[in-house]
Amino acid sequence: MAFYGHWFRPPGAPVKSDGYAWTHRDVTEGFETELLMALWQEAARIAPDRVPPPAPAETAKATTPHTVQRALHALSALLPSRFTDRFLIGVLKQVRLYLTDDDTRERVQRSIADTVTDDTQVLVAHSLGSVIAYEALCARPEWPVCTLVSLGSPLGIPRLVYDRLRPAPGTWPAGLREWTNICDRGDVVALAKELAPLFKSPDGLAVTDILIDNGRQAHDLVPHLTAAETGAAVAAGLLP
Predict the structure, then answer these.
(1) Distance of CA 6 to CAs 18, 25, 161, Å?
(2) Is the pLDDT of residue 191 over 80?
(3) Rounded to two decimals, what is the model's pTM?
(4) Residue 92: which H helix or E strand, with range?
(5) What CA–CA distance (Å, rounded) separates 72 from 176?
(6) Which of 26, 35, 89, 114 is the most exposed place for a label (fewest CB within 10 A)?
(7) What confidence score (pLDDT) does residue 9 get?
(8) Which of 231, 159, 225 is nearest to 198 (CA)?
(9) How much is the pLDDT for 231?
(10) HSE of 18, CA atoms in CB hemisphere, 13 A
């Protein structure tokens, strides 16, 4: 398993006195607020009975601490209780760092490259990890990996994620023969539930999109990994 979390908390980086106890005031204007608002709008679309939509003025420009507070509170209605504001803010910051900071991107990519070996056939990647795995496969067509299984992927989020991918958005990793994308119907992070319209190979290969039901654990890794659909995709990638 490739681990890269430490690159988002490098040694010597300033931390708050109580650790990484982010509050709504730590959400920065720009990428982080825009991503937060996109997730809020998706949550309101998925569960209109539980999540009130943002007001038109908030949708246009989410810059006030009050709006950020409302967005975090709205998202909490769809997430398990352990997904606190601190956790959500940390996710926003990790996505921003990876997609906007070249040094972080390079270090994370190196962690993936150091893990893949000559007999690695399948990559299984969850959440931001699917973005990282996709870019790694595009950059290294010589790898033996022929199957990608993406879980709860934000790859299709327009402008903020999809349009920042390297190489150009929509590129199919050259060595990839199978790509199965699995997500929960209620997963706000997997905002674009279907990746097939966004990624196609020159020879006609396309993503196989599968929807599952994880209940209240829509974005959690464990129910994704234990889903029969995930097991079938991994097994197919390991067959000769």
Answers:
(1) 18, 23, 22
(2) yes
(3) 0.91
(4) helix 85-100
(5) 37
(6) 114
(7) 77
(8) 159
(9) 98
(10) 4
